[in-house]
Specification:
Order of helices and strands: HEHEHHHH
Shape: globular
Strand content: under 5%
Structural class: mainly alpha
Number of strands: 2
Strand order of the largest sheet: 1-2
Helix content: 55-70%
Largest sheet: 2 strands, antiparallel
Length: about 170
């Protein structure tokens, strides 16, 4: 009886390992193959940095903030199209969240401008349903709703967890 249970356990473990291996191999791809359900290509650093710089140029920024001109150099790495825009959009969100935190209690005009800019975030590509889940979008909306009531806790939590130190 004991050896039957041990053999059954070994078979279950071997099956699980084979399944994990199959999933791992199925998820591997090279830079020439794109996901059939996603039309965004895999590109190199130069192209993704160009995308980032174009996105930076289209966004408005707080008066005391200048975003980095380029993404950190990462030669030899492949990126999915949209990553440069996502990085620029994350910087945009962080810059305006920090602006709001720095002004909400002392400079009403600047804090109001920050909230108006942050209200654009849900319409940005990086917050679209194919790039952000419902919980992320809901979390962001809840944080903005709190901020409109003068509660900095949600925005502070997001800045602490997700924004680069400046």
């Amino acid at each position: 009886m004991k050896s039957t249970l041990i053999n059954a356990g070994k078979k279950a473990l071997a099956t699980a390992c084979a399944g994990i291996l199959a999933l791992s191999l199925a998820s591997c791809s090279n830079g020439d193959v794109s996901n059939a359900g996603d039309s965004r290509k895999i590109v190199g650093y130069d192209e993704i940095n160009k995308e980032y710089r174009e996105s930076i140029g289209k966004l408005s920024w707080p008066q005391d903030y200048t975003p980095p001109e380029s993404m950190p150099s990462d030669s030899g790495t492949s990126f999915q199209q949209g990553w440069g825009d996502t990085q620029a959009s994350n910087l945009f969100q962080c810059a305006w969240e920090k602006e709001w935190l720095n002004t909400y209690s002392s400079q009403p005009e600047r804090s109001e401008e920050a909230l108006k800019e942050l209200e654009k975030v849900p319409e940005m590509g990086f917050m679209s349903p194919d790039r952000a889940d419902d919980a992320t979008r809901r979390f962001f909306k809840d944080n903005i709703d709190k901020a409109k009531l003068g509660d900095p806790s949600g925005i502070q939590q997001d800045v602490t967890a997700n924004c680069p130190a400046s």
